[in-house]
Amino acid sequence: MHNKTSDIKILVVDDDEAHRFTLRAMLDKWGWQSEEAADGAAAVAAVEERPFDAVLMDVRMARMDGMEALKRIQTFNPAIPVIIMTAYSSVDSAVEAMKAGARDYLTKPLDFERLRLTLTKTLDHRQVEESRRSREGEDPTALLDPAGIIGDSPAMHDLLEMIAYVAPTEATVLISGESGTGKELVAGALHRNSPRKDGPLVKVNCAALVESLLESELFGHEKGAFTGADRRREGKFVQAEGGTVFLDEISETSPAMQAKLLRVLQEHEIQRVGGQETIKVNARVVAATNRVLEEAVQEGKFREDLYYRLNVVTLQVPPLRERNEDIPALANHFLEKFAVRNRRQVEGITPRAMDMLLKHPWPGNVRELENAIERGVILMRGDHLDERSLPLSLHRAETEPEETPPADAVPSSLEEAEKLVLSRTLEATDGNRSEAARRLNITRKTLLSKINKYGLD
User: Which domains does the chain possess?
Assistant: First the structure.
C-alpha cells in the first residue's frame, strides 16, 4: 500500500504558511514526502521542474489561484492527480474544478482522515494508470491467467483487461455484480496474477456468519475469550499473510464490524477477540458485493469512510443477460465438466436446446446456467443434451412471452410507474443507456442499478 511508501512525493500548495506546515506534518506522519509552494505560480514552476505523484492545492491564493494553476498543471502533465481544497465550498466551484481535471475536492477545515483516504485512493489509482500506460499498445490480457473466467464478449474483454492492469498493484479492489455472476472467480484471477500469487488466497463469506463468529473468523481469538474457546486461534487475516483476503458480501457486515475492517485497511493491524496485543498484518484486501454500495451509504447502512477505502478500484462483473454471446462457450464448458463428474458420454448440445439457453434471461446468471447444464447432463437420455433435459423455467420462458402493458395503462404502484418509465425510455433510445440516463436526468450507474432491480434488458 502507498501509505507507508517513502518515495511518494506530494506538493502542498497554500498561501497560509501555518496550514502548509500542518499538512506537511500529517503527510510525514503517514509516510509520504512533501514539498510546498506558497501560491499557484510557484506550484506550476515546481511541477515543471521536478516530478510529483500528487498535488494538494488551495483555491484562493493571491498571485495565481488554484483553478488557474490546476489548468496549467493539467496542460503541462495531465497524469498528475490534483486534489483541490477550499473554504469556499459551492456546487459551482466543485463542478468547475472537476471539469478542469481535479481528481477530487475537499473543503476546509479539512477532515484529516478523509484527506488520508482521498490521497490513498488517488495514489492507488495512479499506480493502476501507470501500469496501464506502461503496457500501452500491447494486449494487456495476453499473459493473463484468467483463473476459470470464460467469455470473449466485449464486456468480458473489458473486465479481463481491468484485471490485467489492477492485479499487479497493491490496490484494494471492490468487485461489484449480481449474485451468480462469478465475483469469486474475479477475486481468484486478481490473486493469481499478482505478486502475492505464491501466498494464500483466503475467502470469507461475510453473510454466512453472525457478527461474533465473523469477528473471530477474521481476527482470531484468545483462549477463554468466549464459551468454547479452549485455545488460541489465528484469524483469516493472519492466515493470509503475504497473500490476499477475499471478503465476499461485505455489504452484509454490521456497523461495528465495518469499523474494525476500516482499521485493518488504514493501519494494517488487528486484535484477536479477547486480546490486547496489536498484530501487524500483510494481506491485500479484495471485497465483493451484490448491492449498490453508494445506495447503502446514502441509506446509512454502510460506512462512507469504509466505502471510500474499499472503492480504490471497482470491477463491475456484467450479468449474463448482457453477454449472451458467451452462453455457448459457458454451456459447453459446464457440459464437459459435469460429463466427467457424472461419468457420462456427451457429444454436445442440440440446436433446439442451445436456442432455449440463448433466449432465457438468466436472472440467476452464470450460476443458474451451470445448474441447468448439470441437471441436463444428469437427466439426458442420449449422447446430446436436448431441450427435454433442461429445467421447466427455460420452457416457460420460450412459451410465455412477457406481456407489454398497454400505453394507457395506469401503474398500480410507484415502483411499477418507475419501471414503466424506464422501459419506455429505453425503447425510445433503442437501448442506448447513456442517452436514456441523460433523458431521465440520472447517472448511468443509477440507471444500470434500476435496470438490474426491475430485470429490464
Answer: 2-133 (3.40.50.2300), 154-318 (3.40.50.300), 321-399 (1.10.8.60), 414-454 (1.10.10.60)
